[in-house]
Amino acid sequence: MWEAKAVDGRGAELLGWAREHLAPALAAAERLELFSAPGGRVLAISWWPAPVEPVTPPEPPSELLARPVHRWSFHREYVAEAR
Q1: Structural domain for 35, as ranges
Q2: Which residue, among 69, 54, 81, has the nearest Cα to 6 in the 3D structure?
Q3: Distance between CA atoms of 68 and 80, rounded to whole angstroms?
Q4: Where does residue 15 rank: exposed (0-12), middle (13-18), buried (19+ CB within 10 A)?
Q5: CA angle (25, 78, 51) in 5-degree steps
Q6: Total structural domains in the chain?
Q7: What integer pLDDT is reported at residue 56 of this predicted model?
């Protein structure tokens, strides 16, 4: 999971950067979803086949960021099927 917060007023630019640079960098993932939220937040969630380690994506331009990018790696522990 990758999350970034844009400088005030630059959320659309950060989302555009993520579409142009982040998504292609994570193209080897089994699945990739890109989200935006109020406050200029952009979130990418990628699924990778085990035991492959995820790719470290490029950093957005610093002038777009309100703070450093956050990254987390999770391991699936449980899946509930929809009823």
Answers
A1: 2-71
A2: 69
A3: 33
A4: buried
A5: 40
A6: 1
A7: 83
* CB half-sphere exposure, 51, CA atoms < 13 A: 0
Helix (H) or strand (E) holding 45: strand 41-47
Q: 53: which 2 tokens? A: 């380690």
Greatest C-alpha distance within the chain: 46
Question: Which residues lie closer than 8 Å to 5 by C-beta, 6 or more apart?
Answer: 39, 40, 41, 42, 65, 66, 67
Whether 83 maps to a domain, the answer reads no
Question: Pick from 32, 30, 24, 27: which is nearest to 2 by CA?
Answer: 32
**What confidence tens digit (pLDDT) does each residue in 10-59 have?**
999 999 999 999 999 999 899 999 999 999 999 999 988 877 766 788 99
